[in-house]
């Protein structure tokens, strides 16, 4: 006993020096019991317990002030003593639970662990230990504090964003039919998928219980708010929702051939609302439908059932805040937006945007390789024997026309493998061909010459025949042309002040005097013609009412321009400045593109790629430059030509096909990298350098 007392004193002293009380290592005690198994172990266990009890009973003992009793020590000693005496399996298991609970700073039962050892009463509730002789309870142990911290951490309130994510996941799982998983998720997280009133309302709508659904609107009224920035009262929102419910009810009665009931809904319920009377007139007309198919067709309605009711719920939800009821398929909407944003930010994305999620992986960010981009030479067309001044793909993308100083126009056919083959050669343009324009249906092709050319040729491409050779005066200069969208008229002009509108036979329909035209374009309204002139501007001319207005004003000569398909943007090649992008509606300069070398040569740029997201231009430094429309720096510089690149044309149907015409007498066709190894693709002579 004396030896054990010294050991206990030493241990207590060590705890006192470290300034804290730590429970005795469990493994150490178990080792002692094993080594002293039998009577010796029992004696040591009893002696240790007696020593501790004696100290507690006689606080005036000289040993007592030195000891700071750990709240769990008594339990440890008692347990080990019982184990040394060979306690039964069931009792040992029970005491082990008590020991584990004490070490973890947790009560072993709902009311806390309570034990009586030779008159010593200890109650461990994670905060204090008391006895029946008036000894003050020591402070809580480190383990007990840690337990409290863990408890607080477990009960930590979720942030708003965390709750939103859980609700989004729950909605998606619910749509998949995993309702038990949703219930477990909501129960464990403490969140609510949607307001109980909204849940009840949805169930009634899906089941077609229209009277109950209408009654639910009264409960939902207090939860409604305006879905837009325009403030709308809850009463009006409730009215709109009620109208949608009654409309569905009315249509379902009609489909079931319950005409009297439908008429009652129309007269006694819908009409008294005095809302959307125009729609009520249309609904009344459905009474004349002879059968259900006729009704569904005229009403553009899916018919009675889950499909139409689900669609109705989607409309009704727009009047409820998301805290009450989530927008339908909200998680898919967010994922789709994320995918679309990544595609929009991808500098080389040049394929059709698939709005579905099945075609992409949500596990990786979207990224297009530059090898998929048209910056590798696929063909070099060498049939022209002089400078090639212009090139233009047809509107259907199946043909390419090229005009040259050698007085010929060559029409190329684009086959299914995107290879070009010579289709026809159109000859007789004495001054050379500097501009070409396809008719909207690609039946005709108009060719213009350089500044000193007063003639214009209109060819029937398929027949290879000249339909019209137009010349108003030998003093004219017809250097540019543009087709009216109706395909029956075209406008032409030049820098000597001629500006005409003609029919397909070359007959003069209208003229505008004194306009020195550099380049022309007809807008989709069939009335407005855009013309760049020698005053460094682009003006809009209306041949019907003979009015004109200024649209674009530059500080340097506009050598050429082209307009996007939607008529909103104009791409200008400005002398000594390069390529400029203008918004024609707002009449503002949007962007200046860098890199290209533009002097006083006439160079033609173009929009291209899918959705016209890209811009390409020739350059006097023998390169073709490509930009993403939103980026001022080029994303590709195509090398291979040996003299000035006069014109580029992007295939309007095949986004990966680009043509360029040069003073070196060749036309190059650019496409994605061939199916080569990475080392081979990188080593192509006509390379693509990227600066982004």
Automatic annotation (TrEMBL):
Compartments (UniProt record): Cytoplasm; Mitochondrion
Which intervals carry biased composition (Low complexity)? 115-150
List the InterPro entries. CTLH_C, LisH, TPL_SMU1_LisH-like, WD40/YVTN_repeat-like_dom_sf, WD40_repeat_dom_sf, WD40_rpt, WD_repeat-ST_regulator
Composition bias, kind Polar residues: at what positions?
10-19, 89-107
- Mainly resides where? cytoplasm
Please name the PANTHER family in this protein's record: WD REPEAT PROTEIN 26-RELATED, WD REPEAT-CONTAINING PROTEIN 26
Name of protein: WD repeat-containing protein 26
What lineage does UniProt assign to this protein's organism? Answer: Eukaryota, Metazoa, Chordata, Craniata, Vertebrata
